[in-house]
Specification:
Length: 284
């Protein structure tokens, strides 16, 4: 904190189009301009080094879980107490009173049509034409506790949940995948596509992959079972416990390698070289 961070507990990073690095913490938001850290002070908008974005209403006094800049250049911040939009020097907070599914916003993705999707601890919300539309388990969502969102090249939205499995949303219809259908684990903390036809997902029992075509076949009634292959300690993981609940909870590098945060450091997977242990894990 002596260097200007709002808190030493960093939750998320985001680099904007101008090259600024935004840093979310459990106590607010900072911006790094290559030379200084700007702490979004909730009183004066100033820190010891330079002027920061003013925050007189205390919007960033709580945890910031996810940061996104949309195609129009506006910033969206998912926090522990709602969604915050930054546009034209002005902050606006949205909560369940405005149509948000939940006030704990964990994930944000912008689809090909420019619609924004928010994964919350209360369901899924779409934002289009200045209107919110929310979906919950009652609408077919796998779980209201969302941790990850991903849109693939076909425009299909994939939804990772804390303990309800993986969700798929296409043509206004949800499909759910769980361990009952062959998914390795019902936790999906991050979804990364490797360019070889597989989704890689993290959970508290390791990292596992599923073929995207199998998921689509299941949704279209062409398959009844999924084939999941997991990475465990026998494959080099130091721990099975992966971290999630903030974005990004994993990253695909330019070289194609996949990075996942775990309780014992970072796990790195090279899909082009890895040989996975095909034996199922022991039942505990």
């Amino acid at each position: 904190m002596k260097d200007g961070l709002a808190s030493d507990f960093v939750t998320t990073f985001y680099e904007d189009r101008e090259g600024y690095m935004w840093i979310g913490t459990t106590l607010g938001l900072c911006r790094f301009n290559r030379y200084f850290l700007s702490d979004c002070d909730r009183n004066s908008g100033r820190n010891r080094r330079l002027t920061a974005y003013p925050d007189p209403d205390g919007f960033f006094s709580d945890a910031v879980w996810v940061i996104h800049q949309d195609r129009a250049g506006h910033f969206w911040f998912g926090t522990s107490k709602g969604l915050i939009k930054y546009e034209g020097g002005r902050y606006t907070r949205y909560t369940t009173e405005d149509g948000l599914a939940g006030n704990e916003v964990k994930a944000i993705v912008e689809d090909r049509a420019g619609q924004l999707w928010f994964g919350t601890w209360g369901g899924l919300t779409r934002y289009a034409e200045s209107q919110f539309r929310s979906y919950t388990e009652q609408d077919g969502l796998a779980s209201d506790h969302i941790r990850a969102l991903y849109e693939d090249a076909d425009g299909i939205l994939w939804i990772g949940t804390y303990d309800g499995g993986l969700g798929r949303f296409k043509d206004s219809r949800f499909t759910c995948y769980t361990t009952k259908n062959g998914l390795f684990n019902n936790g999906v903390f991050q979804i990364l596509e490797d360019g070889r036809g597989y989704f890689w997902m993290s959970c508290n029992r390791g990292i596992y992959r599923v073929k995207r075509q199998e998921l689509n076949d299941f949704a279209n009634g062409k398959a009844r079972w999924l084939t999941s292959v997991a990475c465990g300690k026998n494959d080099g993981l130091l721990t099975l416990e992966c971290n999630g609940g903030r974005q990004p909870a994993g990253w695909k590098g330019r070289d194609g390698r996949l990075w996942f945060p775990t309780a014992h450091g970072a796990a790195v997977i090279d899909p082009s070289r890895i040989e996975l242990n095909q034996q199922p894990p022991p039942v505990v």
